[in-house]
Amino acid sequence: ILDEDGIYDPESFNDRLLLGLKGTMSEAELHFLKARMRGGQLNKASRGDLKIGPPVGLVYLPDGTLALDPDAEVQAALRMVFTTFERLGSATRTVKFFLDEGILFPRRLRKGPHKGELMWAPPRHARILQVLHNPRYAGAFVYGRTRGRPRPGGGVSQIKVDMADWRFVMPDLHPGYIDWERFKANQERLATNAQAYGMQRRAGPVREGSALLQGRVLCGLCGGRMGVHYSQEHGQPVPTYICQETATR
Predict the structure, then answer these.
(1) CA-to-CA distance for 80 and 249, rounded, in angstroms?
(2) Is the dihedral of CA 89, 95, 101, 104 positive or negative?
(3) What residues form DSSP beta bridges with 149?
(4) What is the reported pLDDT for 208?
(5) Phi, psi of 107 (to 5 degrees)
């Protein structure tokens, strides 16, 4: 084995010992480097200075401040999401209104040869939920909306954190499409609409159907509540447990 300091023979005890020590020191150095980087990131986040890729409808100006997208059509589409949700009371009805009226929703490409370009397409339910749940549209800087959780098979999955447990919350830090009070009211309405919302409802009520564990099974990957989907097999309903994370968040 060769590095900038010399040549080492893995079959030699002294060389193996030296390689082991150098490996341990390198691992410790990497750990401290990551810790310093993490500390710098948290320090910026505590001041609201940490730059996080903005969602569609918000853009960074040359001076580094966050502002509404200057495209009037983009602004109109975002405002329509919030006004429609306030009028109809659910994300599902909001999506249905957009689809029935043939209204498209913008999406800015984040990677690829067309990165930064704007595309328009019919909105999906998950997309509208992302908009309604995003505090940046209320002019707030928020850090700590997710946290890592080890997966049973290895790796780490990101799970949503309850609003009360967000690490840094700074309302009215930049322009938004709604105010902070309206955002909180929207979250309460979304929570009421959802059948399996949040980690605090782990032991939900058993509902009708033949599935014995409905309302009680948790996803092993994200930790969220699993719902039940029934299919027919030989004339009998067969239950299947499905993760509800996308539908309820």
Answers:
(1) 20
(2) positive
(3) 157
(4) 56
(5) -145, 130
pLDDT at 148: 79
Which residues is 239 bridged to in the sheet?
Answer: 230
CATH class for the domain made up of 48-193: alpha beta
Between CA 210 and CA 239 the distance in angstroms is 7
Segments in the chain below pLDDT 70: 195-216, 220-224, 244-249
The closest of 175, 177, 191, 186 to 85, measured between CA atoms, is: 186
What's residue 200's pLDDT?
42
For residue 245, the model assigns a pLDDT of 59
The C-alpha atoms of residue 44 and residue 116 are separated, in whole angstroms, by 25
Q: Which residue has the tokens 């306030």?
A: 86
